Amino acid sequence: MSQRKRSKGLGCSQLPDGEDDFIPTQVERRSQEQLNQKVSELVQFLLVKDQKKIPIKRADILKNIIREYKDAYSEIIKRADRTLQEVFGLQLVEIDAKRHIYILINNLPCAQGELLCRGKEQEKMGLLLVILSFIFMKGNSVKDSALWEFLHLLRVYPGKQHGVFGDVRKLVTEEFVRQKYLETTAIPLTDPPEFKYQWGPRAEKETSKKDVLNFVAKMQGKDPKFWASQYSEANKATT
Asked: Which SS3 state, helix, strand or coil, does residue 51 take?
């Protein structure tokens, strides 16, 4: 007597005796060549988006790449992520589970203190590292006025065009925020309006408070333990 089985996916009706012992799901009916092509298209799409570190929406992936392959979405995403990790040292990470927003982060090991080491726009990344360090050392949140005062000390002025960074105010308030390195929150009941800056989800994924503290300690020629509170927080974050 032949055994009857249910499909693993869309189909779940029983088969009559004498027929194949399973019904392939729509995903299973997709040829490997078709899936490979979609995986390749998705990898290219993600890499192009990542050139400007633009967060990637699930809706855009479905609209521009997956299209009629929605039933194979999970499989295509998993395989694209595996390719990104194995070939490019990048990892696809969901930073907003409600709105399904993804970013690519560097998954390659970095030497201690070499943060955000992807080699793209290194000067801007250097400024970003300084800003992230300032925010962490000041208790993980700083007012925008305090941040600009700090940057003034570095001869970086928001109202002037910088030879390396260009429009610094736009870089900090728009580009770094859009790329999810920084987050801004309005401070209630302030006139004129004030904001505070914190680390964004991309910064949390691409670097660590321990590395930032080591960077600060190296710049100032001190032991990281000199800053007891930050040292404790940084080491808790890594355990």
From this structure: coil
Side chain identity at 55, as an amino acid letter?
P
Could you say which DSSP state residue 95 is in? E
H or E segment and range at residue 166:
strand 166-167
Residue with tokens 């006025």: 145
Among residues 111, 93, 110, 114, the alpha carbon closest in space to that of 102 is found at: 93
Within 10 angstroms of residue 28's Cβ, the number of other Cβ atoms is 13
Measure the CA–CA gap between 181 and 202, rounded to whole angstroms. 5
| Tokens linked to 118 | 């992807």
The residue among 99, 89, 177 whose CA lies nearest residue 131 is: 177
Q: Which residue from 146, 128, 135, 107 is spatially nearest to 213, judged by alpha carbons?
A: 135
Q: By C-alpha distance, which of 233, 222, 205 is closest to 136?
A: 233
pTM: 0.67
- Sheet with 194-199, side-by-side order of all strands: 142-143, 194-199, 182-187
Hunting for tokens 């203190």 — which residue is that? 113
pLDDT digits (tens, 9 = 90+) for 69-125: 888 898 999 999 988 887 777 889 888 888 889 988 876 544 444 445 444 466 788
36's enclosing H/E stretch is: helix 32-50
